[in-house]
Q: What sequence folds into this?
């Protein structure tokens, strides 16, 4: 795999409105490699005619009245189903480029908008995709990258579009998934006068530095046998990591891009967390119907990985089978080798240029985790199958290595405390937000899994992964997913009924 190794945690579901784009280094975008042009070998996706880019002047700093600088923020509209006075369904962009496919396909645009004669609108998040408030992504310039600024962007945008298209008789509903799901919930909490409700899919609402419970859900979702096989592979890998002969063998078998020196701790951490990421990704997006946005590797499911991990004809040792899983993933993402070098990763992430590979979202999202959320998916949970190789300190150190020494643990602690104080964390007080959660989505551990009140409910979707409710429907969808979408429609009816 090329580029971004590690880190990025998150979130998210697919490209756009739900999701992150990278996860421990592997790009989840349809673009394959970070930073490559928007092109894909997905024939269906390429055949679509998508709505044009639209732009409007957004303020750089909403919280400083004398700072009047503006920049161009991008948005997309599809009004095919809209009838005058009907609702406006605003999807908030997340930590990656906003893909207009989300106002054409996906549940919100294709199903809910049709049902309610709504206009579908997608607003790209500042600093992601082509919405670039500053000339580059220097640390100095990234100070305007906060969720508070992004929420006020959406508020200003609602004002702007209401005037531009004479929407004063329309009600707005806000949608998002993963990080943008958090934004949707927070938007409704902070701007209840602007939107009648929010659908916040797979939304983490509690910031936390050490998100070690992520691996608890991964481990549960794999099942005992598969989990045991990975534990066994980790044990065998640990033995190889102890001596130079083992390093050679790791280098060859896991197809590492460069000579592997097992006495460089940061490289070992980076490598093992990348291999864990192979499995984490598969769990997080298990059977999500992401093909429509050109996502790669969607046929690799928990069953596929676990069938390999537990099948002794594939390889006699668990480590051989773990190597096989790595091969399958490399092939699915068209990557020739695993770039495990921590220094390469840091160098890429330090690049402040909009044309760099890190600008696909890696640098920006890492910055947000370092100054707002933490969310570090560490290996600190006892009993998880990947070994103790990526402790939370490893992630905390990355903040300093990438952005500078002032981004230390203390700053992170204060930031996370501020975020939970500002929004409420698990104690979020909000009405008219629906929180769909999937039982095998590792993010649900930081989400809303109990009703917050009679009109803000958790919607449990048994057996589904991250943001499953947002993707187009498929014949293979389990009944509980179809039911969940019907519940979302009923909830939208309630939000939109005139009080
Ligand atoms: C708007 O969405 C509808 C429903 O998915 C689709 O048929 C139509 O082509 C879209 N319009 C544009 C301009 O993309
Ligand atoms: C919307 O604006 C029009 C034109 O300014 C006005 O006639 C109408 O009363 C307004 N409707 C609402 C609900 O404010
Ligand atoms: C491996 O890394 C260690 C520690 O940084 C260093 O002392 C050693 O020379 C390296 N070995 C090789 C073969 O590069
Ligand atoms: C997934 O699909 C790709 C492309 O069609 C194929 O090459 C690969 O073998 C498939 N992998 C699995 C595990 O089914
Ligand atoms: C195990 O792997 C072998 C060889 O790849 C394959 O033929 C067999 O079908 C697999 N068995 C199961 C139960 O998946
Ligand atoms: C979820 O589904 C599994 C398997 O289909 C079933 O065993 C379990 O009871 C279900 N859990 C809930 C809470 O519905
Ligand atoms: C997996 C998970 O945490 N699901 C929760 C989602 O919300 C429902 C309803 O409140 C809970 O019962 C589930 O535990």
A:
């Amino acid at each position: 795999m090329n580029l971004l190794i590690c880190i990025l945690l998150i979130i998210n579901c697919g490209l756009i409105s739900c999701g992150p784009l990278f996860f421990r280094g592997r790009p989840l975008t349809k673009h394959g490699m970070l930073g490559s042009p928007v092109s894909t070998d997905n024939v269906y996706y390429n055949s679509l005619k998508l709505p044009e880019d639209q732009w409007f002047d957004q303020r750089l700093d909403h919280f400083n009245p004398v700072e009047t600088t503006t920049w161009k923020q991008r948005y997309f509209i599809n009004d095919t189903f809209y009838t005058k006075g009907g609702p406006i369904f605003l999807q908030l962009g997340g930590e990656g480029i906003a893909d207009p496919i989300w106002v054409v396909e996906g549940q919100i645009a294709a199903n809910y908008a049709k049902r309610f004669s709504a206009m579908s609108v997608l607003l790209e998040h500042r600093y992601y995709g082509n919405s670039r408030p500053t000339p580059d992504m220097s640390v100095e310039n990234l100070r305007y990258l906060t969720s508070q600024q992004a929420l006020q962007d959406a508020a200003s945008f609602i004002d702007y579009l209401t005037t531009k298209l004479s929407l004063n008789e329309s009600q707005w509903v806000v949608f998002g998934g993963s990080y943008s799901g958090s934004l949707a919930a927070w938007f409704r909490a902070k701007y209840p006068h602007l939107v009648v409700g929010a659908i916040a899919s797979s939304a983490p609402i509690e910031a936390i530095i050490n998100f070690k419970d992520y691996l608890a859900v991964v481990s549960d979702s794999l099942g005992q046998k598969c989990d045991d096989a990975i534990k066994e592979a980790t044990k065998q890998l640990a033995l190889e990591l102890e001596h130079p002969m083992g390093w050679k063998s790791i280098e060859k078998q896991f197809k590492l891009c460069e000579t592997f020196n097992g006495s460089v701790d940061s490289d070992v951490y980076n490598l093992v967390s990348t291999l864990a990421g192979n499995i984490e990704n598969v769990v997080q997006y298990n059977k999500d119907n992401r093909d429509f946005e050109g996502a790669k590797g969607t046929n690799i499911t928990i069953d596929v990985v676990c069938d390999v991990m537990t099948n002794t004809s594939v390889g006699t040792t668990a480590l051989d089978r773990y190597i096989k899983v790595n091969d399958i993933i490399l092939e699915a993402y068209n990557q020739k080798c695993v770039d495990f070098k921590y220094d390469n990763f840091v160098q890429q992430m330090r690049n402040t240029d909009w044309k760099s590979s890190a600008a696909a979202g890696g640098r920006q999202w890492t910055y947000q985790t370092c100054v707002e959320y933490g969310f570090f998916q560490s290996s600190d949970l006892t009993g998880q199958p990947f070994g103790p190789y990526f402790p939370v300190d490893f992630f905390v150190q990355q903040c300093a290595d990438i952005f500078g020494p002032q981004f230390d643990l203390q700053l992170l602690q204060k930031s996370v405390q501020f975020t939970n104080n500002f929004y409420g964390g698990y104690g979020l007080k909000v009405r008219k937000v629906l929180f769909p959660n999937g039982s095998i989505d590792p993010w649900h551990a930081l989400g809303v899994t109990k009703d917050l009140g009679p009109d803000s409910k958790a919607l449990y979707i048994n057996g589904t992964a991250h943001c499953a409710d947002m993707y187009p429907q498929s014949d293979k969808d389990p009944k509980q997913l179809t039911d969940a979408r019907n519940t979302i429609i009923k909830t939208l009816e309630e939000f939109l009924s005139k009080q």
Q: What stands out?
A: The CA atoms of residues 255 and 337 lie 5 Å apart.
